[in-house]
Design goal:
24% of the residues lie in helices and 16% in strands. The chain has helices spanning 48-58, 78-87; strands at residues 13-16, 21-24, 42-45, 63-64. The protein binds zinc ion.
């Protein structure tokens, strides 16, 4: 659900700078807990690419939210890192 008020300003994508999570508000679920985040930690933007760019500029390790952006979500597990390395 998009929110018109600051800091959301009607934008679709939200980067939580505290957690590095990126949310898609058009697919938001209750487990995203958007309303529990600190408003000053949230950066709102129009595209996923913009959220990724902003995270990299700030040096934040980003991750797609497991609930609303599962296609961009990465599990922070050593086993998965190893299997990705093996594929390369
Ligand atoms: Zn989410």
């Amino acid at each position: 659900m998009r929110r018109e008020q600051a800091p959301f300003n009607g934008k679709q994508f939200i980067l939580n700078q505290a957690t590095g999570e990126i949310h898609d508000l058009d697919r938001e679920t209750p487990r995203c807990a958007i309303d529990e985040a600190e408003p000053e930690q949230l950066f709102a933007c129009d595209t996923y690419a913009e959220a990724v760019l902003f995270a990299s500029v700030l040096g934040i390790t980003r991750n797609g939210c497991a609930h609303c952006m599962p296609e961009h979500h990465r599990e922070a597990q050593a086993g998965e890192d190893r299997s990705q390395r093996d594929r390369i």
